[in-house]
């Protein structure tokens, strides 16, 4: 069984980005990201509508972190404070050394390679610090950009579940991609 410990918070850096803890100062950025229809197009969660929605989500993120049940990094450009996205591990299955990765990015930053850039240290952290054996991503089969990102980062298609998820009045498919620590 793995025993993740996210204290102190692990700040990760890349050539252009800083992955850092999300703080109360990020509430307006979380609201902006989680209320943006293009950002949330393939994330089957209600759009954030108010600052309270953002603060509630931030509380869930903080609780998961404190309880070592999940970690979410805020993604910032170096030398700036604002968030351009988030990435993290949740649904940590300690007994099976597996976790799900989730991520989102402000559309103003699409196509610049930022998500590919942050995948490297985050995957490294998952395998080497958290001691995960496998990392999975649950994606909408229509989310071609996310699937391309996963394949470029050595994830392989593990399953395609037909209409296994009911959201917003419709049954939706889920595709699972995973990467083993080999």
Describe this protein's structure:
The protein is an alpha+beta fold and 182 residues long. It has a single domain, classed as Aminopeptidase. Helix content is 27%, strand content 33%. It is built from four helices and eight strands, in the order E-E-H-H-E-E-E-H-E-H-E-E. Helix 1 crosses helix 2. The radius of gyration is 16 Å and the shape is globular. The two termini are 18 Å apart. 26% of the residues are buried. The model has no long low-confidence stretch (mean pLDDT 96).
CATH top level class name: Alpha Beta
How many E-type strands? 8
The CATH superfamily bears the name Gcn5-related N-acetyltransferase (GNAT)
Average per-residue pLDDT, rounded, comes to 96
> Which outline best applies?
globular
Largest sheet: 8 strands, mixed
Global structural class: alpha+beta
Q: Could you say what the CATH architecture is?
A: 3-Layer(aba) Sandwich
Count of helical stretches: 4
**How far apart, in Å, are the first and last alpha carbons?**
18 Å
- Determine the fraction of residues in helical runs and give it as a percent range: 25-40%
What is the CATH topology classification name? Aminopeptidase
- Gyration radius, to the nearest Å? 16 Å
Topology overview:
Elements: E1 12-13, E2 17-21, H1 27-34, H2 51-66, E3 71-77, E4 85-93, E5 98-105, H3 114-129, E6 134-139, H4 144-152, E7 156-167, E8 170-180
Parallel strand pairs: 5-6
Antiparallel strand pairs: 1-2, 2-3, 3-4, 4-5, 6-8, 7-8
Helix pairs in contact: 1-2
């Amino acid at each position: 069984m793995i025993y993740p410990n996210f204290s102190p918070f692990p700040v990760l850096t890349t050539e252009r980005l800083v992955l850092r803890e999300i703080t109360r100062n990020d509430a307006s950025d979380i609201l902006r990201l989680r209320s943006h229809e293009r950002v949330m197009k393939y994330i089957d969660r209600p759009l954030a509508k108010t600052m309270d929605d953002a603060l509630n989500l931030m509380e869930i993120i903080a609780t998961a972190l404190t309880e070592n049940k999940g970690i979410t990094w805020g993604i910032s450009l170096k030398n700036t404070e604002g968030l351009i996205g988030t990435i993290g591990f949740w649904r940590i299955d300690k007994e099976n050394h597996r976790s799900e990765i989730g991520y989102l990015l402000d559309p103003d930053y699409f196509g610049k390679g930022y998500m590919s850039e942050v995948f490297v240290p985050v995957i490294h952290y998952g395998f080497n610090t958290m001691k995960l054996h496998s990392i999975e991503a649950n994606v909408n089969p229509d989310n071609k950009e996310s699937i391309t990102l996963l394949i470029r980062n050595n994830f392989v298609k593990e399953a395609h579940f037909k209409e296994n998820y009911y959201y917003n009045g419709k049954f939706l498919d889920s595709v699972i991609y995973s990467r083993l620590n080999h």
